[in-house]
Amino acid sequence: MAKWIKVETHTPDKAEIRQIARLCHCTKAEAFLAFFRVFVWLDEQTEDGHVDYFTPDDADEIGGLAGLGNALESVRWITFSPGGAVVANWERHNGESAKKRCLAAERIKRYRKNHPEYGADDPKSGNYRNAQSVTAALPEALPDKIR
């Protein structure tokens, strides 16, 4: 099975990547590549986002960019301490449950594309997926017997 990490299409243009580029005096592309290298390495080292003995200098070396570790901490993506580091929101973005959610969402998207009868706003299926309302409309009034 292929190894992967979640990277959204807009990640290279995130404000945090721009700030990392400014702090490290490099291009956004170089900042993104350095971030990517570090997070690939982290994905191989931790399941919960905690990495013992990991330092800003380690991040610099792994990412191939001087000042990267401090910049990652500056944008609050990693918190360093004397004992190691903690990656912010690790489980939401990189944990196994996040990967499963991502894969499931992609599988459902492909299925709906290939089965239009289950697509959004399809009157035949009744599947409006919040397009018109979250819940179906209630009847006019309850009969007196139920009140």
Reading side by side through the largest sheet, how are the strands ordered? 1-3-2
With helices defined by DSSP (H or I, 4 residues minimum), what is the helix count?
6
SSE sequence, one letter per element: HHEHHEEHH
Query: How many domains comprise the coordinates?
Result: 2
Percentage of residues in strands: 5-15%
Q: What oligomeric assembly is this protein in?
A: single chain
Helix content: 40-55%
Q: What is the overall pLDDT average?
A: 82
Rounded to the nearest angstrom, the radius of gyration is 22 Å
- Which secondary-structure class do the elements indicate? mainly alpha
Q: Main beta sheet: strand number and arrangement? A: 3 strands, antiparallel
Low-confidence stretches: none
Q: Tell how many strands the DSSP assignment holds.
A: 3
Q: Alpha-carbon distance between the termini? A: 58 Å
Report the principal-axis shape. elongated
Structural notes for this entry:
- By secondary structure, this protein is mainly alpha-helical.
- The protein has two domains: 78 residues; 31 residues, no CATH class.
- It contains six helices and three strands, in the order H-H-E-H-H-E-E-H-H.
- Helix 1 crosses helix 2, helix 1 packs across helix 4 and helix 2 packs across helix 3.
